[in-house]
Amino acid sequence: MTGSLRTRTWEIVEAARPGDRASKAFDIFILSLIFLNVAAVVVGSIETVEARWGVLLYWFEFASVIVFTVEYFTRMWSCVADPRYPNPITGRLRFATTFMALIDLAAILPFYLPFVGVDLRFVRALRLFRIVRVAKVGRYYSSLQLIRNVLRSKKEELVLTTGLMMLLLLVSASLVYYAENATQPDKFPNIPASMWWAVVTLTSVGYGDIYPVTAIGKLFGAVIAILGIGMFALPTGILGAGFVEEIQKRKGEPKRCPHCGKEIA
Predict the structure, then answer these.
(1) Residue 46 · residue 52 · CB < 8 Å
(2) Which residues are within 8 A (CB) of 194 and not within 5 positions of it... i.e. 6 or more apart?
(3) 61 by DSSP, 3-state: which?
(4) CA gap 130, 35 in Å, rounded
(5) Quick check: 176 and 193 in contact, CB under 8 A?
(6) Lowest-pLDDT range, 62-71, 111-120, 176-185, 229-238?
(7) How confident is the model at residue 126 (pLDDT cuts 50, 70, 90)?
(8) Taking CA 259 as the corner, what is the angle to CA 248 and CA 222, rounded to the nearest 5 degrees?
(9) What is the pLDDT of residue 227?
């Protein structure tokens, strides 16, 4: 009896299967509550709204946290019905350390921290983590599953391009430091401080608060700005190709080159 109840509970709290009305209703309810909580966080940051409706928003959050807490412990109780987590102890520990379970915990934990003597100034900042409730949507939407699959399949390429970007950032900051330090010691006092200029230049933001004035510094700035455009195009192309491959895989179509369209063996 307990086993069948646990199995049915797990089926309901997990993403709905076709034809499972109870699980679908649960998904809709949880998703609606997540979006309403995110909306409450957003409008609650407006002083006039907080002054007038702050009490109502607090009690809405309180009720929502109770629901999310019950949901979290319900998942912990019923997860052993999943073949991936069969052991009552180690299985639950494995489930508790999964990404989505950690997101579930992060969604409710900040609410309870004030009751264990944590400094309230720190808690106010930590409570911003309530916004992670929107990440719980990933449990239900296949589109976010697609993104995760793409990131997983292209992780080596993304790590490589990230490393190249960090290297370019360091080289750029070093070059502009040696070119501008003598002329602008207040703007480029050291290499770490010069990284701010390198970041805004590589990202083509260019706030204009710090800029080179020497001829060699301007030359470096022009080259770095051009390289920045190319470097940010690399991960874009990698992710684009990953999405094409993943969508074709889902459709059962043969893989094709995203550039020429020829079938890849």
Answers:
(1) no
(2) 173, 174, 176, 177, 180, 188
(3) helix
(4) 11
(5) no
(6) 111-120
(7) low
(8) 125
(9) 87
Burial 81-101 (b: 16+ CB within 10 A, else e): beeebeeeeebbeebbeeeeb
Residue appearing with tokens 């976010």: 144
What residue has token string 């409730």?
133
DSSP 152-185: HHTHHHHHHHHHHHHHHHHHHHHHHHHHHTTT-T
**Are 88 and 77 contacting, i.e. CB atoms less than 8 angstroms apart?**
no
**Secondary structure (3-state) at 256:** strand
Q: pLDDT digit string (tens) for 137-148? A: 666 666 777 888
As a whole number of angstroms, the distance between CA 82 and CA 68 comes to 21
What is the predicted pLDDT for the residue at 251?
75
| Residue 83 tokens, joined | 């073949």
DSSP per-residue string spanning 23-49: HHHHHHHHHHHHHHHHHHHHHHTSHHH
Average pLDDT score over the chain: 82
Query: Which contacts qualify for 26-31: CB closer than 8 Å, 24 or more apart?
Result: 27/140, 30/71, 30/136, 30/140, 31/137, 31/140
What are the structural domains, with CATH classification, of the chain? Answer: 2-140 (1.20.120.350), 155-251 (1.10.287.70)
Q: How many Å apart are CA 236 and CA 241, to the nearest integer?
A: 9
d(C-alpha 105, C-alpha 126), whole Å: 13
Name the more confident of 181 and 145: 181
